[in-house]
Amino acid sequence: MASQEYFKGIDNIKYEGHLSDNPLAFKYYNPEQVVAGKTMRAHFKFAIAYWHTFCGQGSDPFGSGTQNFAWDRASAPLQAAKDKADAAFEFILKMGFDYFCFHDFDLIQEGTTFSEFEKRLATITEYIKQKKAETGIKLLWGTANCFSNPRYMNGASTNPDFNVLARAGGQIKLALDATITLDGENYVFWGGREGYMSLLNTDMGRELDHMGQFLTMARDYARAQGFKGNFFIEPKPMEPMKHQYDFDTATTIGFLRKYGLEKDFKINIEVNHATLAQHTFQHEMETAANADMLGSLDANRGDYQNGWDTDQFPNNIQETTEAMLVFLKAGGLQGGGINFDAKIRRNSTDMEDVFLAHIGGADTFARALITADKIITSSAYDKLRKARYSSFDSGKGQDFEAGKLDLKDLYNIAQENGELKLQSGKQELFENIINQYI
């Protein structure tokens, strides 16, 4: 373990209940509390985003960073990476969480050559492997940053230059190797620049074929190395590209099916990406669940007045409750967990602010899970939903679902029925039930 304490004066975060006034305590997240047959710990598998929590410094396009972290002071890349790892594992232990997630360049600076980066990544991977052994903290998923470096300005697997595509392949091989070495449970692809700025200079069909082939090669390589986890794709409609090929969950599912990847890949859904696609978080979850691809969740939110990815910590209890209804109905996640892909605000500069943000996020999901379970088990919610579709439970409606009718049959039924009485959707009643149980 590291000798230096980075988060001085902050003890392990405990559950104290909703009546507690202690800002450094969980009010709703009780890891061992059983809800719907599982502990909260097992339901959520909360993970810390290495990039935001330990790499972000509060910079924006108009100013340099405001958050000066002690683990950023070493000038030597390897020492800086070790310091960051020490701080990360201290923080995760104090939060009482079990997982972390990373991009390759989060762990250590890239270096000036590909060979240099390979050596650096291998060295820090071994160091983090020791940290994992000492603490019991696990890796939810790893990924590669194939979007920040200028070489990827025209994409990675969809780049029109084959040499850039090959470089991305080499980088992802190393990231997969690191994930496997660290016993990562999953691996994520986020196509930050897999898309286009203008169709005028873009062969979309060829780029999509290249991306499908690239992901197939990555899957085959990882499986050959013994990786048994899920591969996730994280949809986002735009930003940094004008249009990204993994626009939303439905688009991504269609892509995976076209290229025969649906058995190995599932969807990692981010709240802020869902809203940027003009969807709700729960819509994206429902779409993935219906396709048996609800893999993992990145927990954050956007700003309702801003049209870009602000990556704020989740605090909308109504939105999260509706999402947890989908979560419970789907039987939870397939392989993944809930990663706090969120960053404290630029004007939040105290070390305790990082704790406060994660506490609030965990409490929001825990409170929403408890509420959703009560709605399902104690209210008329399920009965009301089923009643809307009762005409399909018997008679001709049941025959339709069983494939026993043809279009002429529907025509004859319409003739027999004549004009129909309107059936209310009772939307306001459903909304009132959510508010009542919150």
Automatic annotation (TrEMBL):
Q: What's the main place this protein lives?
A: cytoplasm
PROSITE patterns tied to this protein: XYLOSE_ISOMERASE (PS51415)
The record's Gene Ontology biological-process terms are:
D-xylose metabolic process
Cofactor mode of binding and number, as noted:
Binds 2 magnesium ions per subunit.
The subcellular localization recorded is: Cytoplasm
Catalytic site: 103, 106
Positions with a binding annotation for Mg(2+) 2: 270, 273, 309, 311
Q: Locate the coiled-coil region(s) and give their ranges.
A: none
Q: What's the superkingdom here? A: Bacteria
Instruction: Give the binding site residues for Mg(2+) 1.
Output: 234, 270, 298, 341
For the protein in the UniProt heading, the enzyme class is isomerase
Any single Gene Ontology cellular-component annotation:
cytoplasm
Keywords attached to this Swiss-Prot or TrEMBL record, sorted alphabetically, are: Carbohydrate metabolism, Cytoplasm, Isomerase, Magnesium, Metal-binding, Xylose metabolism
- Cite the InterPro entries for this sequence: Xyl_isomerase-like_sf, Xylose_isom_bac, Xylose_isomerase
Which cofactor(s) are needed, names only?
Answer: Mg(2+)
- Give an example GO molecular function: magnesium ion binding
| Keyword Metal-binding assigned | yes
Q: Which NCBIfam families match?
A: PRK05474.1 (NF003998), xylose_isom_A (TIGR02630)
Family statement drawn from the similarity comment of this UniProt entry:
Belongs to the xylose isomerase family.
Q: Which PANTHER family match?
A: PTHR48408, XYLOSE ISOMERASE
Name-wise, this protein is Xylose isomerase
Q: Which organism is it from?
A: Flavivirga aquatica
